[in-house]
Design a protein that fits this description.
Strand order of the largest sheet of chain A: 15-12-14-13-18-20-16
Oligomer: heterodimer
Number of strands of chain A: 20
Number of helices of chain A: 16
Order of helices and strands of chain B: EHEEEEHEHHEEHEEEHEEHEEHEEHEHH
Largest sheet of chain A: 7 strands, antiparallel
Structural class of chain B: alpha+beta
Shape of chain B: globular
Structural class of chain A: alpha+beta
Largest interface: A-B, 94 and 94 residues
Radius of gyration of chain B: 21 Å
Helix content of chain B: 10-25%
Strand order of the largest sheet of chain B: 14-11-13-12-16-17-15-18
Radius of gyration of chain A: 23 Å
Number of helices of chain B: 11
């Protein structure tokens, strides 16, 4: 039988997509890269996923797992003919354990749906990417996703207690659990952030975080980007790690304000959104420090969200930033790099210069508290030569961040976007070690091939013969 | 076994520890590169190497008869500390207490274990040990931003980056936590730091379960045979409110209990909400420290302590009992890890990419890995 028929025998023909348009739609994520799926399959159970893996191996075609397709680095893009496994039907919240502050969920559960589900228990899932209304827990695990509130709470990896995974050969393993300090080599940690290249996660045990009893959200306004960045350094230096510390520049605030009317000052060079959480005495004390430092650094205004509605509007505006860009140009390219917090000012100034050099409009909305930059270039892809300029500017942005002691990506992942830039950060020996991780889980190279690592990473010859007895 | 090529490396004194047979080589390399060269030579000779930090956690895992003991004590530099960025890059042989003392001069902390004098940064990470402040700051693992390791076959591999947020490549840097060197001997790490709060207090409580439930993200709630205490920190007004609400005797500062000591020590780990029940199972054994909200109880006893029964109960509820120190012969009759965790075969394949001959701590891990 053919591949679609074999898959239909497992999940039913309703859950196998072979139509040209559907295959086209599943050929890309929210970024700029495109491939074409040979066939899209939507399993509902772990057993079905295991069977799909065995079928793909039999047909010798690769498997690309996909959550909601909100990724920007091309992680879910099928680069060669193969099976796209959509986890959207695996969206069951199996159990919520309030006493242990954990929940077993399917990979297709939507991030915000989980936090809404656990809200009556006073708990939430801490990672909160801007795409949280659409992105899935499986996708969060694959990319070790972040979000504004990762500043104090940490990225997804800090919130995954265990998982069930289908590996090559259709082998199903379960790692981790509610009890701490599981001995042995921690497979859970290597699987989080592995971008679907090691296996397919079919169940996730997430850590839930208590909702803060009190929250204070401050909007600090500045007449220079430098003053806003100095406030970030000042707050961290003062011994406070706020729940979130988000910055956006004037180009961005104008677009957002024009659309959502959140009360952002359109004449300010930069604004900072700072949030402190906890119990009231702690929140009051920390908010005072943030406000004092903002004034000291030259803020022109500081205001506090008066109630939940105002706070919700501020966050809606922040998390809708990328949608607001549609007003100004048909296309945008959103970057994700990291620099040490102490290098924010000089990096940002160079980011704007890169935009000017390439004739591109550069705007910034980002997680300033952890030095996680999101430079955004708007353009019209239909203008000849524009994409070349975008790519040239992109390469300079990434190199700039790495040169300043930073990293290629803070939360979006390497995918195909930054795959060939990995040597900027890692030596041949380092990349060879990474490639060995891939090889140990997926010797046949069936899971999401040609992602995360450049071709040839495994070829490093470190000048020593392979010893006898080596497990090859 | 004498290993050719190791004569040229700086020697170290043999570590003193009951139950560990003396190795043929005791070395203390001066640099990460030398550490890698030691591994290459040992691997070529199919020798077994035990990396040695402070020796504090050498009681974990199956007993070994090493050919080489390699000390990290000369890898003792704080390479770069960026207080404004809340990160520090530190060599693995630095003592945890010395690092914390240095960090506290700028009111920062790496939230390392509070009561392990003599332990090193590399030892704590390799042994997978976390401090009491885990409810607030997470396990030690969460703070590893970058790691450089000398693999079992002599490569010097770096993973991660010196920034607080980074998803560039596989997370090898955090996977070294608890791997007992299976992915390589740690030579240096970059760690995420936390500011120390303005005020802190240790407050006696009668009911640790109620104290845990009643506080928003306390540092710790610990129970010992002599009583329980809640540990809180934050702005002074917050600490005052927490202490007043808890109602018990308040002492300013964080006063941690001594770790339980005895002929045999073990850790019982269960789901956090089962901590109180686990305490009920071990109170007859001896001194203990139970971490409410975490699910870990460290307990000390002797050969007659009924470890088999406690382990049987712990494993029946999804937990385990792990021996943390014992006389050498005890390990012959009692598996220090208990039932091997699932997927040891997958772990073995991963480890083979870093240590194909299992040069480092061969056989120490669960399942004999």
């Amino acid at each position: 039988m053919g591949l679609p028929e074999d898959l239909a025998a497992v999940v039913g023909s309703d859950h196998v997509l072979t139509d040209g348009l559907e295959r086209f739609l599943y050929g890309k994520d929210a970024g700029v890269f495109r491939g074409t799926a040979t066939v899209v399959v939507m399993p509902a159970t772990t057993g079905e996923v295991a069977e799909i893996v065995r079928i793909a191996e039999r047909h010798e075609v690769p498997i690309v797992a996909r959550g909601a397709g909100t990724g920007l680095a091309g992680g879910a893009v099928p680069l060669e003919a193969g099976v796209v496994v959509s986890t959207t039907r695996m969206n069951t919240i199996f159990s919520v354990d309030a006493a242990n502050r954990s929940a077993w969920v399917g990979p297709g559960v939507i991030n915000l749906d989980l936090s809404r589900h656990t809200a009556p228990l006073g708990l939430h899932f801490a990672p909160d990417p801007s795409s949280q209304q659409a992105c899935t827990i499986g996708g969060n695990v694959a990319n070790n996703s972040g979000g504004p509130h990762c500043l104090a709470d940490g990225s997804t990896t800090d919130h995954i207690l265990g998982m069930e995974v289908v590996l090559a050969g259709g082998t199903v393993i379960t790692v981790g659990g509610d009890a701490p300090d599981v001995p042995g080599v921690d497979l859970r940690t290597i699987l989080v952030g592995s971008e679907g290249t090691l296996g397919i996660v079919t169940k996730v045990l997430v850590r839930l975080t208590p909702n803060p009893p009190d929250v204070r959200t401050l909007l600090c306004v500045f007449d220079s980007v430098r003053a806003a960045a100095a406030t970030v350094s000042g707050v961290i230096g003062a011994g406070i790690v706020p729940a979130a510390l988000e910055m956006m520049d004037q180009r961005m605030t104008v677009l957002i304000e024009n659309w959502l009317h959140a009360g952002f000052p359109v004449d300010a060079a930069a604004i900072l959104l700072a949030e402190v959480t906890g119990e009231t005495p702690s929140v009051t004390a920390e908010a005072e420090v943030v406000e004092r430092i903002a004034w000291e650094c030259g803020a022109t205004a500081v205001s506090t969200a008066a109630d939940d509605a105002e706070r919700a509007l501020l966050w809606k505006a922040r998390k809708s930033a990328f949608g607001a860009v549609a007003q100004t140009a048909p296309n945008y390219y959103l970057h994700d790099t990291v620099v040490p917090r102490t290098r924010l000012v000089e990096t940002l100034e160079e980011v704007y210069r890169i935009g000017e050099r390439h004739g591109l409009v550069m705007m910034n909305v980002f997680h300033a508290g952890d030095g996680n930059l999101h430079p955004l270039m708007t353009f019209d892809a239909s203008e000849p030569g524009t994409l070349d300029r975008v790519h040239a500017a992109s390469a300079e942005l990434v190199a700039l961040s790495v040169d300043n002691g930073g990293a290629l990506t803070g939360e979006h992942g390497v995918g195909v976007e930054k795959r060939d830039l990995m040597p900027l950060m890692f030596s041949d020996v380092d990349l060879d070690a990474q490639a060995r991780v891939k090889e140990s889980f997926d010797p046949g190279g069936i899971f999401n091939p040609d992602k995360l690592l450049p071709r040839g990473s495994r070829c490093y010859d470190f000048g020593r013969p392979i010893p006898e007895g080596t497990w090859i | 076994m004498r290993v050719r090529g190791l004569e040229d490396f700086p020697p170290a004194d043999a570590p003193v520890r009951d139950g560990l047979p003396s190795a043929d080589h005791h070395l203390a390399p001066d640099t990460a590169e030398e550490m890698a060269e030691v591994m290459a030579a040992a691997s070529d000779a199919a020798a077994v190497v035990v990396p040695w930090g402070g020796g504090v956690h050498q009681g974990l895992g199956h007993r070994l008869y090493p050919d080489v003991i390699v000390s990290t004590r000369r890898l003792d530099r704080i390479i770069v500390w960026e207080p404004e960025d809340l990160t520090v890059v530190v060599e693995s042989g630095v003592l945890v207490d010395e690092l914390e003392a240095e960090l506290s001069t700028r009111t920062q902390t790496a939230a390392f274990p509070e009561t392990t004098p003599g332990a090193t940064v590399g030892g704590v990470i390799s042994a997978g040990v976390s401090g009491y402040r885990r409810p607030r700051y997470g396990p030690t693992r969460d703070r590893i931003l970058q790691a450089t390791v000398a693999t079992g076959d002599g490569r010097l591999v770096t993973a991660g980056g010196r920034v607080v947020k980074n998803v560039s490549g596989y997370d090898i840097q955090r996977s070294v936590f608890g791997a007992h060197g299976a992915l390589g001997v740690i030579t240096s790490v970059c760690l995420k730091l936390w500011p120390r709060a303005a005020a802190s207090a240790t407050v006696a409580v009668d009911d640790p379960v109620a104290a845990w439930a009643g506080l928003h993200r306390p540092l710790a709630v610990l129970q010992t045979p002599t009583g329980s205490a809640a540990y809180v920190e934050g702005p002074a007004a917050q600490v005052d409110q927490d202490a007043a609400r808890l109602g018990g005797d308040r002492r300013d500062g964080l006063h941690w209990p001594d770790p339980p000591r005895g002929e045999i020590t073990a850790a019982v780990t269960v789901a956090p909400a089962m901590t109180a029940e686990a305490v009920g199972r071990i109170t007859a054994i001896g001194p203990f420290v139970a971490q409410h909200g975490v699910g870990r109880i460290d307990v000390a006893g002797d050969r007659s302590s009924g470890w088999v029964e406690v382990r049987g109960w712990a494993e029946s509820v999804g937990g385990r009992l792990t021996i943390t120190s014992a006389p050498a012969d005890f390990y012959d009759s009692f598996d220090p890890w208990g039932t091997a965790p699932p997927a040891v075969a997958v772990q073995a394949r991963l480890v083979a990419g870093f240590d194909p001959l299992r040069t480092i701590n061969r056989g120490r891990l669960p399942g004999g890995l």
